[in-house]
DNA helicase RecQ (Blautia aquisgranensis), 526 residues
Amino acid sequence: MTKQELLKTHFGYDTFREGQETVIDALLEGRDVLAVMPTGAGKSICYQVPALMMKGITLVISPLISLMKDQVRSLNQAGISAAYLNSSLTQGQYFTALRYAKAGRYPIIYVAPERLTTEAFLDFARNVEISMIAVDEAHCVSQWGQDFRPSYLKIAEFIELLPKRPVISAFTATATKEVREDIARLLGLQDPFCTTTGFDRENLYFAVKTPKDKYKEVHDYVMEHPDDSGIIYCLTRKLVEEVSEKLIRDRISATRYHAGLSDEERRNNQDDFIYDRCHVMVATNAFGMGIDKSDVRYVIHYNMPKNMEGYYQEAGRAGRDGDPAECILLYSGKDVVTNQYLIERSQDNQEMDAATWRLVRERDQERLKQMTFYCFTHDCLREYILKYFGEYGKSYCGNCLNCQTEFEEYDVAEEAAAMVRCVENCGQRYGINVILDTLRGASTAKIRQYHMEENPSYGVCAKMPAHKLRQIFNYLVLRGYLHLSDDGYTIVKLTISSKELLEDNAHITMKLPKEQEVRKKEKRSR
Ligand code: ADP
Ligand code: ZN
């Protein structure tokens, strides 16, 4: 059968999704593959179809027993003989399965990584033809991945022990370059065909907002969408409690979910949401794994999450049915500080030596920075996401807040120079708020405490509204003219580019929403 016929007869689909066919073709040509695809994009078809076209057995390595069971069940339903080998089988069942496998009964076998190098399994694997190995959740092999599994390191060891090297395919939804390089190296991929697809979800609308009152923003949104199901993600359990209590008090049918609740309450609340007894789920990122509710119409992030991977996975729970859905992120500067705190604290529950920990923290900080830039950018948000994950988007999608806002280039050279001077004047010792309050000439407790009234920068931007000043500040950070220190206190530092802004003919413009018109004219007439 051709791959199209297999797709139709076994899986019931007429066409391949974007990316599936190129992966299948590469594998059939005998080339290793490293495919980056988000959850739900359809990775399984990429190895299941070629597995059925190759002569020998395909081993699929997967970290989760429940995932293996699901996959094997649906393959069997599709009329494909498959089995799994993991610790959920009794010894009797395990050896029976191995015997059948040896007799050539299963073209596809799912196996847990820790089984690979056991004597019984090796004995089997060396005496049959293994034509392909597909590694699911391949990022588990990397220490930099979200969930490192030492047993994944056995995969390369196992392959070395085989009489003939099979084709190897690796699949993951994690995008960072380090993780991809680790996967290729630690699995021993040879000149792999690398591809990134399926990240673009056209039906999702993206927006970043910086409301003064986040709760009001959420409340109003929910009231405007009374019949829709939505998820509100909060960074901490405490906030989940707070927001859900307020919503319930405001007579909105909301429920909550976080790891601090009893199993029973979590199960009940989850069911209430899935079966539409409650419309709004307020939750930490503990909610969502393995939950398949296709008609979630919006996902609001009450706080900025700690990286784009997390954000996109959570936001992506909206609109699984393909109908329009909205993903809104509510940003505030405090979110950066909270995330930094969480990154610092994460060492407590990890067994790592000091050097590894430093590297992991550095990478976490870098990811947090990329996340922050998503909140700062005035360019197309979808383009930003796709670029982050290594895909190429258009610079205008038409379906995000930035694409729908009319921006205008605005000369900010004066303010930029003032900010750099201010940071310099206070010896690079203070945080964002002190810097901005100084420029505005505000009189807060900190300003008085640090005697900023005497600073030459005090009040030089007094005419500029606070939120505009902050936008310009964010823009300078985004462009690398200023830097936020990574020590958990977000101290503003100069960079090697800062000086450029102090030159006489310095030229820097940024996009600001069109309402700036008035101010621009005012400035020209001065
Ligand atoms: P992943 O492993 O990437 O999370 P799955 O392989 O489980 O995703 O696929 C997600 C869903 O998409 C499944 O319901 C699957 O049946 C469906 N799917 C996969 N490929 C296609 C296709 N070519 N056409 C339509 N649906 C598909
Ligand atoms: Zn856009």
